[in-house]
Each structure stands twice: as C-alpha cells, then as structure tokens.
Amino acid sequence: MSRHHASWVAALALAASPLSSYAASDAVASEMSFLDDIPVVLSAARLVQPLKDAPGAVTVIDRAMIRASGARDVAELLAWVPGFQTGRKNGSTALTTYHGLSDDAPRRMLVRVDGRSAYSPYFISGIEWAKLSVDIDDIERIEVFRGSNAAAYGSNAFLGVVNIITRPAADTPRYRVRFTEGENGIQERVLSTRQQFGDLTARLTVGRQGDNGLAPIDDTYRNQRVDARIDWQLTPDQEVEFHLGFVDNRARTGETTDISNPPRTIDNYTGFGQVRWRKQLDLGDEIKATYFHQEERSDDAYFVPLAPTIGVSFDYGNRSIRDDLEFEHLLNPRSDLRLAWGVGLREDRISSHQFFNTSDNIVIRHARVFANAEWQVSPQWTLNAGAMLEKTNDTGRRISPRFAANFHILSNTTVRAAISRAYRNLTPFERQADMRFYEKNSGLLVQQSFQPSPGLQPERVTTREIGIRQEWQSGRSNMDLRLFDERIENLLRRDTTATNATDARFPLSTWNGDSTRYYNGGYARIRGAELTGLYRPTHDTWIGGHYASLDINSNDEFADRSAPNEQFSVFAAAQIHPGWHMSLTHHFVGSMQWYTQEKNRLKAYRQTNLRLAHRFSTRGVRGEIAVGVQHWTDAFADYLPSLTRPTQAYASLRLEY
C-alpha cells in the first residue's frame, strides 16, 4: 500500500475515533436495539444466514450507508465493494463489472431486485442500471456476493450477484419528498407516499432525475420513474407482495465528428409487474411463488446521407418481453439441516430487425431446478452445498454445483473454503447478431458489422477460494479476507471473417467485405486477494475500507488489462454534533482499460466524495438538508481517456411525514 493511501487511512481513523465515542454516548435506545442484532445475509444461499456461515464473501450495504453516501444510483455504491470496476459510458449509462472481462456492455454478473432478475440478456448488455425503477431511498439493503453464485441463481450469476432488497411498504413514511440540485445540470425530484387499507399497505414512488453527462460530449439525459409496492397480509401466515414499475429514459448520444453516429436522442422504455406469494408452513418452513412480466422497448432511428440522393437508414429499435415463474420451498428437515429448493420457467421474446436481420421474434425458453443446503455438523463446522440445473432451447443442459465448508476456530473467527463451477449462457446477440446496412434507394449492401456465430458453447468458470472472517461487537465490526482463483474457459473472443451475406455488393462504401463474429477461443485465469474491514460502534458511525489485488492472465490481450492490479477505498461517517452528520469516501483505482484499444488505457485515478447533512424534526416532520461534493479531486476518466467526470457540488432536501 502506498504512503499516500496509508495517510488517508490514518487521517480518517484519527478523525473518526473521537466522533465515534461522542456518537456512541448519545445513541438512542432503538439504535442500541439495532446493534444487538446479529448481522445476517439473506441471499447468499437463498437462506437467512449469519455472515460467518455464508458459503462465500458477502458485502452488505445497508440503508444508513446508502443515505450517507450521497449516491444517486446503485451503480455508484458498487465502488464500495472490493473487486468491482465502475465507469460511465455516457451520462445515463453506468458500467459495472466484477474482476474485469468487460467491454461497454457488462454481462457476467447478475442484479436482482426483490427476487426479480434485472439482467437483460436480450441484445448486448446484461445490466442496464438506467432501467431500474426502484428509488434509492426505498432500498433496505444491498447484498453483494463476490464470486460465482450460479448454484443459487443460475448462469447469469457467473462472476457475482447484486441483490437489492427494498423496504416493506409499512416501513416507509406516509409522505416523503426529495429535491436535489447541483452543478453539471444535476436535478432530481422524488415524491413517495404510503397508504394503509386494512390488511393492505401500498407505497408509490415517482421521480425524475438527470444531469448534463460527461465532458466533452453531448449526453444530457432525463430519467422518469414510477415504482410501487403493495404488501397484503392475507392471514397471519400468508402474504402477497405486488411490485410494479415503469421507466422512461431519454438520453442524448452520438458524435458530431462521426457521420454514422450523429447526435440524437434515444428513448428507452421499461415496465414490469411482479407478484410474490408467501406462506409459512411451520417454524422455519415456507413456500413461495414469484411471477413477473417485463417489457422493454428502445427507439433509435436516423438517416445518414452518403451523397445528395443516396444514404443509409439506421434503426436500432428493439422490443423484448420476459415472463418468469418460480416456486421455492424452504424447510428444516432436522434441527441441524436447512434446505432451499425450487423450480423455475422463463421465456424471452425479442425482436430487432437491425440487430438480427429478421422481423421475427427470437424466442428463448429456460427451465431450472435448484437446491441449496446448510448443515450445522457441529458448533465448529458449517457445510453448504448446492447446485442449479438449467436447460435452454439453444444450449441444452448445464449443472452448476458448489460446495463450501466454514470452520469456526473461535466464536468470532471463521475460516472458509469453497469450490464451484458455473456456466454463462450466451446472449442472443452473441449467437445470432446479423447487422447489415443497406443503401435506402438501391438496396445495395453497404456494410455488415456482425454476422451470426453458430456452434458457440457457454463460457465456464471454476472458482476456488479460501477466506478468513473476524468479527467483533456481535458481528457489527468485522474484517474479511478472500483469496481466490477463477479459471474461465470457452471465453468469447471476436475475429473478422468474410461476410456470409449472399447479396454482398458494396460499390457505395470502402468496406472490404469482412464482418465480426464471436468464437470460443479464449481463456482467463484470475487470481488475487480482497480485504475488507469495518468498525461500526453505532448505527450512524463507522469507518471502513477495502483493498483488492488482482492479476489476470489470458490469451486475450484486452482481458489481461481489463481490471486494475490494485484498488483501495476508505469510507467513514459520524455524527459531529447533535443533528449534524458527515461522511467521506476516497477511492483509488489503478490503471486499466475496458475492452477497447490500447490508446484507451486509463491512467490510475483517485476520487473523493464529501457530504455534510443536518437532520431535524419539527411538528411531526423529519427532515434533512445536505450538501456534498462528488469527485472532489481533479476531473478523471473511468471509461475512455477522452471522457472526464467533472467535480460536482450539490444540495439536497428530504422531508418525511
């Protein structure tokens, strides 16, 4: 660790220590009740487990941390998680990946919101953060499983899972508003209300946010969201949750210097509905069923003139529909054994003439069976075992198993070891992309940028890891070390070959007749260590951080440099005076590059965020006024060297009743 990093740790530790003792002496009874709870993880193996019994390393970001961070979306929070790389392709498009191996469309990790998969494997990108309707103030906690978790959640959880759990409707204020204004066009308006109707409680949140994006491109965006949750207690042992959401995202894109990618506005629409039914059968036994329907649509059409009377029409418009049904059973066959098993069915229907050279729907059907078990062999030993069997109509059957053993050397010291294998089913774009561009009047083929890639096999990862977890204060303060070895085979690569188009006449362009396709020619071995630590004497006071060291060896030159060798973060928060709260985060990211050319290699950079908030209460209204600075350091680039993130100051007001 460099001297610069060490000085940050020392400064934050010295700053937090007196504030910690002050805040601890002023802690209220409800806060101490929170501190008495043993921290648990809800999603690592689909079982409620103490963190020390989980089958892998898990980072938990709770509501207090989210609020203190000043983050405007979930993607920003992942900078708090070791091994994650974050960036901005443009103002509205956040990029997040775990352990690299990503271009501008990350697709090797899974995001779930209240049991619903937010992975969008329809075209190119797996996670499109701008399409999430959930407001950041409605999130109860975020659980990040660092490593493959396909045994619990399937092939999309190839290198990690982000589980977003929202607050029950009854646990939110009756009325809440939030206003944010800041530099670079930052603007946010959110209104939320909670209503009670007998045994039914409903929450509705509507909001709009946007900013002017990155310098120097024209990428202003405005995002409008509607999100609703309805909790209905049918009987003392039976409840139903309804979740509804809609997002309208309008963003500027394109470049004035690129005739084939002119400045324009893209419209993206996403809507979903979900119902989740739960029934308690016995102490610890539960069955639940979840169904959701989701539709996405994008409008992006324009015309590029090649001469006064000829030109090419581009239409990247697309539409996708997903239906997913899952049944799950949690049971305790014995006092020392717990099991979660279930089955699921999913169907995706997608269409885009530009992407696939057909107006027909591409239909993908997916079936899954899974089971995860926890066995408390003795007070010292906890064993976790699980597997997911998946079948799709284009890849056949695949099974992803996992085994983990946790040895509790002492009541607060645990050593764990785990091994797993997982597969990533490829996206329709990777398999079937056939992007052809024709002159509008003559019908001549001007270019084919992608052609279909038949015969591809799913990517495969074998993960081995060991870890040590030390806890204090009943688990509220902790330190966790993860050492890992991830071996990825059948890694997709790109090459160019002669076009497969039979109408390959291209006198109107300089195209040489080659087009891009994918093939399973790559491998990567990712080895490293992740160390996290957190000291949290009270609910609103903590100092923590993480350090990650990563080494990628691959036959793909882009993969080798797709993650920094070193990352480091420190985050702290404290009550500095009654009603006044301050938080500070500092991140260091070593040199890396996304899957782009060598000229786009990013320099190592640092960023610091500062937030000061005053909380007050009057006549039944609780409020908070906050000011903050994001990217306090000099402007930096986290995707392309030419796209910089400016320093941004902002002010926000929250009112709750």
TrEMBL record:
Alphabetical keyword list: Cell outer membrane, Membrane, Receptor, Signal, TonB box, Transmembrane, Transmembrane beta strand, Transport
Xref: InterPro entries: Beta-barrel_TonB, Beta-barrel_TonB_sf, Plug_dom, Plug_dom_sf, TonB-dep_rcpt-like
Signal peptide: 1-23
CC per GO annotation: cell outer membrane
Domain TonB-dependent receptor plug: 51-161
Species this protein is from: Denitromonas halophila
Principal location listed in the UniProt entry: membrane
Protein family membership: Belongs to the TonB-dependent receptor family.
Keyword Transmembrane: yes
Domain named TonB-dependent receptor-like beta-barrel: residues: 219-626
The organism's taxonomic lineage, starting at the top: Bacteria, Pseudomonadati, Pseudomonadota, Betaproteobacteria, Rhodocyclales
Protein name stated in the entry: TonB-dependent receptor
An MF annotation (GO) of this entry: siderophore uptake transmembrane transporter activity
Annotated membrane topology: Multi-pass membrane protein
